[in-house]
Amino acid sequence: MKYLPVLLVTLLTACGGSEKPAEPAAASVAASAPVSASSAQAERTFTPVPDIKPVWQIMDIAGQPQAAVEKILGQPQGACENNKYGKSCEYQTPPAEWSITYINGRADWILLRDPRIDNALTSPVWLGLPYETPTTAAPALLGWSNYPGLLDFAAHVSMDNKALEYIYIKVRTP
Protein backbone atom coordinates (compact mmCIF):
# COMPACT_ATOMS: atom_id res chain seq x y z
CA MET A 1 0.00 0.00 0.00
CA LYS A 2 2.84 2.36 0.65
CA TYR A 3 3.81 2.12 -3.03
CA LEU A 4 0.34 3.09 -4.23
CA PRO A 5 0.92 6.91 -4.16
CA VAL A 6 4.22 6.47 -6.03
CA LEU A 7 2.50 4.24 -8.57
CA LEU A 8 -0.30 6.78 -9.10
CA VAL A 9 2.14 9.66 -9.59
CA THR A 10 4.15 7.60 -12.07
CA LEU A 11 1.03 6.55 -13.94
CA LEU A 12 -0.34 10.10 -14.14
CA THR A 13 2.97 11.49 -15.32
CA ALA A 14 3.36 8.80 -17.99
CA CYS A 15 -0.17 9.36 -19.32
CA GLY A 16 0.13 13.12 -19.57
CA GLY A 17 -1.82 13.85 -16.44
CA SER A 18 -0.31 17.29 -16.00
CA GLU A 19 -2.62 20.20 -15.41
CA LYS A 20 -1.52 22.02 -18.58
CA PRO A 21 -3.21 20.60 -21.70
CA ALA A 22 -0.98 19.52 -24.57
CA GLU A 23 -0.61 21.86 -27.55
CA PRO A 24 -2.55 20.69 -30.63
CA ALA A 25 -0.58 19.56 -33.65
CA ALA A 26 -0.23 22.03 -36.54
CA ALA A 27 -2.39 19.87 -38.84
CA SER A 28 -5.29 19.83 -36.39
CA VAL A 29 -5.03 23.61 -35.95
CA ALA A 30 -5.26 24.12 -39.72
CA ALA A 31 -8.18 21.73 -39.96
CA SER A 32 -10.13 23.50 -37.22
CA ALA A 33 -9.38 27.03 -38.46
CA PRO A 34 -12.27 28.93 -40.03
CA VAL A 35 -12.49 28.60 -43.81
CA SER A 36 -11.84 31.77 -45.76
CA ALA A 37 -14.64 33.17 -47.91
CA SER A 38 -12.82 32.46 -51.17
CA SER A 39 -12.08 28.84 -50.35
CA ALA A 40 -15.63 28.33 -49.05
CA GLN A 41 -16.96 29.69 -52.35
CA ALA A 42 -14.66 27.35 -54.27
CA GLU A 43 -15.97 24.37 -52.31
CA ARG A 44 -19.61 25.33 -52.95
CA THR A 45 -19.15 25.86 -56.68
CA PHE A 46 -20.64 22.89 -58.51
CA THR A 47 -20.34 22.27 -62.20
CA PRO A 48 -22.88 19.69 -63.38
CA VAL A 49 -20.69 18.72 -66.32
CA PRO A 50 -16.97 18.29 -66.59
CA ASP A 51 -14.97 20.95 -68.35
CA ILE A 52 -15.78 20.13 -71.95
CA LYS A 53 -13.98 21.71 -74.87
CA PRO A 54 -16.66 22.23 -77.54
CA VAL A 55 -16.08 20.45 -80.84
CA TRP A 56 -18.38 22.90 -82.68
CA GLN A 57 -19.79 26.38 -82.11
CA ILE A 58 -23.36 25.78 -83.24
CA MET A 59 -24.29 29.47 -83.16
CA ASP A 60 -21.71 30.05 -85.92
CA ILE A 61 -23.84 27.74 -88.11
CA ALA A 62 -27.45 28.05 -86.88
CA GLY A 63 -29.39 30.72 -88.74
CA GLN A 64 -26.46 31.57 -91.01
CA PRO A 65 -26.56 31.79 -94.84
CA GLN A 66 -25.17 28.87 -96.82
CA ALA A 67 -21.96 30.72 -97.75
CA ALA A 68 -21.13 31.31 -94.06
CA VAL A 69 -21.87 27.67 -93.19
CA GLU A 70 -19.64 26.45 -96.02
CA LYS A 71 -16.72 28.47 -94.63
CA ILE A 72 -16.97 26.26 -91.54
CA LEU A 73 -18.10 22.89 -92.93
CA GLY A 74 -16.72 23.04 -96.48
CA GLN A 75 -18.62 22.25 -99.66
CA PRO A 76 -21.68 19.98 -99.56
CA GLN A 77 -21.26 16.31 -100.45
CA GLY A 78 -22.96 16.06 -103.82
CA ALA A 79 -25.71 18.33 -105.00
CA CYS A 80 -28.08 19.99 -102.58
CA GLU A 81 -31.75 19.10 -103.05
CA ASN A 82 -34.61 21.55 -103.26
CA ASN A 83 -37.71 20.32 -101.45
CA LYS A 84 -40.97 21.84 -100.24
CA TYR A 85 -39.26 23.18 -97.10
CA GLY A 86 -36.16 24.69 -98.65
CA LYS A 87 -32.74 23.51 -99.79
CA SER A 88 -31.19 20.44 -98.07
CA CYS A 89 -27.44 19.84 -98.12
CA GLU A 90 -25.22 17.10 -96.69
CA TYR A 91 -21.76 17.85 -95.28
CA GLN A 92 -18.89 15.61 -94.17
CA THR A 93 -16.41 16.97 -91.64
CA PRO A 94 -14.86 13.76 -90.32
CA PRO A 95 -15.83 12.34 -88.01
CA ALA A 96 -19.02 14.45 -88.13
CA GLU A 97 -21.88 14.22 -90.60
CA TRP A 98 -24.28 17.11 -91.09
CA SER A 99 -27.62 17.49 -92.82
CA ILE A 100 -28.78 21.10 -93.06
CA THR A 101 -32.00 22.44 -94.51
CA TYR A 102 -31.80 26.08 -95.52
CA ILE A 103 -35.18 27.78 -95.17
CA ASN A 104 -35.41 31.30 -96.57
CA GLY A 105 -31.68 31.09 -97.29
CA ARG A 106 -30.62 30.35 -93.69
CA ALA A 107 -29.49 27.17 -91.89
CA ASP A 108 -32.72 26.34 -90.10
CA TRP A 109 -33.00 22.59 -89.56
CA ILE A 110 -29.71 20.98 -88.54
CA LEU A 111 -29.05 17.29 -87.98
CA LEU A 112 -25.63 16.34 -86.62
CA ARG A 113 -24.01 12.98 -86.00
CA ASP A 114 -20.62 13.25 -84.31
CA PRO A 115 -19.13 10.30 -82.39
CA ARG A 116 -17.06 12.68 -80.26
CA ILE A 117 -20.29 13.85 -78.60
CA ASP A 118 -20.93 10.86 -76.38
CA ASN A 119 -23.50 12.09 -73.88
CA ALA A 120 -27.00 13.41 -74.59
CA LEU A 121 -27.13 15.45 -71.38
CA THR A 122 -23.95 17.36 -72.19
CA SER A 123 -24.50 17.58 -75.95
CA PRO A 124 -25.31 21.32 -75.89
CA VAL A 125 -21.99 21.98 -74.13
CA TRP A 126 -20.13 20.04 -76.84
CA LEU A 127 -21.68 22.49 -79.31
CA GLY A 128 -20.59 25.61 -77.45
CA LEU A 129 -23.80 26.27 -75.52
CA PRO A 130 -23.97 26.68 -71.74
CA TYR A 131 -25.21 23.78 -69.64
CA GLU A 132 -28.96 23.94 -69.00
CA THR A 133 -31.33 21.40 -67.54
CA PRO A 134 -33.36 19.75 -70.33
CA THR A 135 -36.92 21.03 -70.68
CA THR A 136 -38.04 17.68 -72.13
CA ALA A 137 -36.93 14.22 -71.04
CA ALA A 138 -38.15 10.98 -72.57
CA PRO A 139 -36.50 7.55 -72.82
CA ALA A 140 -35.09 8.27 -76.29
CA LEU A 141 -34.88 12.07 -76.22
CA LEU A 142 -33.57 15.00 -74.22
CA GLY A 143 -34.80 18.38 -75.41
CA TRP A 144 -34.10 22.02 -74.68
CA SER A 145 -36.27 24.96 -75.69
CA ASN A 146 -34.46 27.55 -73.58
CA TYR A 147 -31.46 28.50 -75.72
CA PRO A 148 -31.67 32.03 -77.13
CA GLY A 149 -31.52 31.98 -80.91
CA LEU A 150 -32.68 28.35 -81.15
CA LEU A 151 -36.27 27.19 -81.32
CA ASP A 152 -35.48 23.62 -80.28
CA PHE A 153 -32.43 21.50 -79.45
CA ALA A 154 -32.99 17.74 -79.25
CA ALA A 155 -30.54 14.94 -78.46
CA HIS A 156 -31.87 11.60 -79.72
CA VAL A 157 -30.71 8.48 -77.90
CA SER A 158 -30.66 4.83 -78.98
CA MET A 159 -33.19 2.73 -77.08
CA ASP A 160 -30.84 -0.26 -77.26
CA ASN A 161 -27.71 1.05 -75.60
CA LYS A 162 -28.64 4.63 -74.60
CA ALA A 163 -25.88 6.01 -76.84
CA LEU A 164 -26.37 9.40 -78.48
CA GLU A 165 -27.51 8.83 -82.08
CA TYR A 166 -27.91 12.36 -83.37
CA ILE A 167 -28.69 15.96 -82.47
CA TYR A 168 -31.50 17.82 -84.20
CA ILE A 169 -31.71 21.60 -84.00
CA LYS A 170 -34.48 23.87 -85.23
CA VAL A 171 -33.56 27.52 -85.45
CA ARG A 172 -36.69 29.37 -86.60
CA THR A 173 -39.16 27.15 -88.43
CA PRO A 174 -41.03 24.52 -86.35
Automatic annotation (TrEMBL):
Protein name: Lipoprotein
Organism of this sequence: Eikenella halliae
